[in-house]
């Protein structure tokens, strides 16, 4: 199953377009995409046999698949290649920080620069579908609604200022594009091994596979839920592989006018125009 946020409404993504969930279910499910996760099991069961009017897909109308999560977790140094380019040892436990939900945006929304040291980080994003509280690693996937593509856009100057402000540096307006839709894990060829990458103005700058994750999706669910419950709709940005701008010689950063495209096998691609920052 694929679901999307289309014109601010929850839709099923089908071969020829989209089906409005509220209309097709005769009001059984609400139109708000954020409400889908609280009734995830019911929605999945209904969608197996759902029929309805197929509407054209408007790419420009797509928003974040989980637009208002209560919690957004992110994981640092979760690929050995990225740890190496960062000159750091692999962590013994997940290196966790948060992205503030207000920084999330849609898959084709512009990225508004906050400074001159803004970097890219393509990531697999897991969306929680069932509350997870002290979940065993073996049961981790059972609590994941689906997967989507994300960019953990990062202002490196702010991130490393004042002893380290990861959450602030990664939460500026527009610094969390996700999409283009959410895909349930059964829809991808191998939920534990998917190709992912991103390009800048057509030049591939990151290219890897999620099999390289140090801490897998179910391990992250287990580790995080041991500390606090993961709630339906919550996001986990699972980490980025090598190829980020700050790891290059000389370092490279995003500039106005560039186009950042990010993709994950079996899920899709997002594309974001880079624009100059607005007034404070």
Describe what you observe in this structure.
- With 280 residues, the protein is mainly β.
- The chain has 2 domains: 62 residues, no CATH class; 204 residues, Fumarylacetoacetase-like, C-terminal domain (Fumarylacetoacetate hydrolase, domain 2).
- Helices cover 12% and strands 32% of the residues.
- It contains 6 helices and 19 strands.
- The strands form 3 sheets. Strands 1, 2, 3, 4, 5, 6, 7, 8, 11, 12, 14 and 17 form a 12-stranded mixed sheet that branches. Strands 9-19-18-15-16 form a 5-stranded mixed sheet, with no helix packed on it.
- A hairpin with a 2-residue loop joins strand 1 and strand 2.
- The N and C termini lie far apart (41 Å).
- The model has no long low-confidence stretch (mean pLDDT 96).
Keywords:
mainly beta, 280 residues, five-stranded mixed beta sheet, single chain, globular
Short structural summary:
The protein has helices at 21-24, 40-47, 80-85, 156-159, 166-169, 217-225, and strands at 2-6, 9-14, 17-20, 54-55, 62-63, 72-76, 95-98, 104-105, 111-112, 118-119, 122-128, 144-151, 154-155, 176-183, 195-200, 203-209, 235-237, 259-264, 268-275. The chain is mainly beta.
Topology:
Layout: E1 2-6, E2 9-14, E3 17-20, H1 21-24, H2 40-47, E4 54-55, E5 62-63, E6 72-76, H3 80-85, E7 95-98, E8 104-105, E9 111-112, E10 118-119, E11 122-128, E12 144-151, E13 154-155, H4 156-159, H5 166-169, E14 176-183, E15 195-200, E16 203-209, H6 217-225, E17 235-237, E18 259-264, E19 268-275
